[in-house]
Structure formats: C-alpha cells, structure tokens
Amino acid sequence: xxxxxxxxxxxxxxxxxxxxxxxxxxxxxxxxxxxxxxxxxxxxxxxxxxxxxxxxxxxxxxxxxxxxxxxxxxxxxxxxxxxxxxxxxxxxxxxxxxxxxxxxxxxxxxxxxxxxxxxxxxxxxxxxxxxxxxxxxxxxxxxxxxxxxxxxxxxxxxxxxxxxxxxxxxxxxxxxxxxxxxxxxxxxxxxxxxxxxxxxxxxxxxxxxxxxxxxxxxxxxxxxxxxxxxxxxxxxxxxxxxxxxxxxxxxxxxxxxxxxxxxxxxxxxxxxxxxxxxxxxxxxxxxxxxxxxxxxxxxxxxxxxxxxxxxxxxxxxxxxxxxxxxxxxxxxxxxxxxxxxxxxxxxxxxxxxxxxxxxxxxxxxxxxxxxxxxxxxxxxxxxxxxxxxxxxxxx
Length: 395
Description:
The protein has about 400 residues and is α/β, with parallel strands linked by helices. The chain folds into three domains: about 1-75; about 80-265, Rossmann fold (3-Layer(aba) Sandwich), CATH 3.40.50.150; about 270-395, VC0802-like (2-Layer Sandwich). Helices cover about 35% and strands about 30% of the residues. The chain is built from 15 helices and 16 strands. It has helices at about 1-10, 20-25, 40-60, 65, 75-80, 85-90, 105-110, 125-140, 150-155, 190-195, 215-220, 285-290, 290-300, 335-345, 360-365, and strands at about 95-100, 115-120, 145, 160-165, 200-205, 225-230, 235-245, 250-255, 260-265, 270-280, 300-305, 310-315, 320-335, 350-355, 370-380, 385-395. The strands form two sheets. It has a nine-stranded mixed β-sheet. The protein has a seven-stranded mixed β-sheet with strand order 11-12-10-13-16-15-14. Helix 1 (about 1-10) packs antiparallel against helix 3 and helix 1 crosses helix 8 (about 125-140). Residues about 10-15 and about 175-180 have low confidence and may be disordered.
C-alpha cells in the first residue's frame, strides 16, 4: 500500500509531504494530534496504518532498521531476508562491484554494501525504490545506486564486468507461492544466466528452501556451492553460488544469537562422547544438506528410523545439526501397545514429535490422551511397526 500511496502523493500538484516527513510522523507518538492539510490527511493515516502493522514484525526481523526509523511495505517485508541471515552472508562474499537484480526492500543490498565497494540495485517499483533510497540514507549507506528498471531491460544494455550478480527472484508468481520450479520464478534466472553469464565472475541466487539441489544443479549445468542458512536448526534460506570462486559442495551456515558457524560434510565436527545413551533428531538443515551419512560416520551413531533421521548412540553432535536427548526407553509395537506402555510408566504429559509416522504430532498426542509439554520428549516413527523413543533433555 505505501508504495502506491507514495506515488499518489508525488502526483499531487504542489504536494508538500515528503517521504522524510512521512517517517517523522510514523515514528511520532503524537502523529494523530498533528494538524494536517486536507490533501495529506487521508494519505498519511493510510500509511500510518500500514506501518503500525509492519513495525512489530520489522522490530524482530530488522531491529536496526526500526531503530533508524526506516519505512516498510507489507509484502516486501514478509518476503525479505532477516537482518541476522543477511549479515551472515557478508562473511561469505566480498568484492568491488555487485549487481543486485531484485532490489526489493533492500535488506540484502544493505548487508552486502559493507563488503562491496559499490552496489547497483534494480527494481521496477518506483514507490518501493523511493522507500529503499530513504532507508539507505537513514542508515548512512551511500554506496548503493537504486535504479527504476528490471533485470530484463537493464542487462542487454551492459558491458560492465561485475564481481558478482545477486538475485532473490519472486517465488509468488501468478499469485501463488512457487517452490521448487526455479524456471517459474520472476525473473527467470536460467534464461538470464544463459544470455548474460559473461557479465559476472560469480552468480548468487536465493532459492526456496524446498528446491531440490540436484535438480537445480542439473538444470543449470554448472558445479554449484549451496549454502543452507539455519537459525535454531530451522532452514531459513538457501543460496546457490557458481562462477570463478565457487567450488561444488554444500554448507550449513548456522546463525544464532549473532554467532555464525559453518558446517560441511568433509569438515570435522565438534563431538562429545558420553556414557549416557543418546537419541538424536537430525535438524532440517542437516537433512537438506544431505549430511546424515557423514554425521553417522563421524559420530559413530546408528540410524534408528527408516530414513535415518533419528539416530542413537553415545555421542553428542552440534545443536545446529541435530537435537540430542537422553534416551530413557524405546517402545516398539502397535499404537495401542505403545499407549499402554506409556500409561504403565505413568507418562501422562510429554512433548510429541513424529517423522515418517501414521499421523502428525498433535493427532498422535491426542490419540494417546497426553497433555502437552513437560520434561519428557516422545519421538514416533514407523508405518507398520511403530516405535516410540522416550527421551528427556540432557543434564
């Protein structure tokens, strides 16, 4: 909404409401008491309404942006990278000049501006570009040039050699979220790369976490380094990188509490052996990266479920790659048998998780008449022969 309203404001003859004044009023506790001219009042309150909806989410996702009194737009805010993940990228890439094909709200551009001498950023949305330019000034960023154009229009006019071309394509094409089919993204990265690969030493593309890595690499026909960004073991972002400085492989970049750690199959993990029998649930990032076999080999664990996403043994692995618990009991049999065994053990409350099971977690918990929460964690797996692992947090 704010982008369209800003464009309307610019169309008013003799309009005096600048984007700077919008920001002042948005962050002013007295905004509703301001005496506004007639042509500004409705627009200002519409913008205020959107900002009031955006600010709570922005404060969590982009804390330094709200501290600098930046402006936001609902959809770009929802789609943008979080500030913590954006800054984690800065440890991986640097250079002289970068071309950003999909500027959006500008979160990635702002992060990359600390590692590249200059960034040229493209977006056809003039209202959003006005907001991005304003936000850059609010944060003291002066090495980003924002242009009102598309990648398809801009690239054919260029003969510049960029150190890096970055793209975060729209995955909501035609009104629906597109997941794995990158050819349906906007812009079409495959098509642009085939035509303009010579313009950059390296290409970086943000993908849906659901993208099949092997499929993408086969479609592109290039060796690719994939970076899987996670926070508290949840996959937040997936980057595909190829070009002069990229070697094929997969890395998990774990970002938590402003601490970034990088894991790879061939990189030795920090392991802790224990006499306690351990149950481990691999993280979604470790599963996405295909690290299961490497973790089993390095940690000396063994698969405890059909797909090997539940492991047991006597080794604690990094929390970024899996949650480890003390294994109290393993119950195998029908769901009724498992329920009777839990009842006999006096278990009436637990945190329930399921993987490759006959029903989801919440339904399983209700079926077994268990209260939610408590100190115990029950992990269920199996379609025919069902298994329940009774665990608790490590002391």
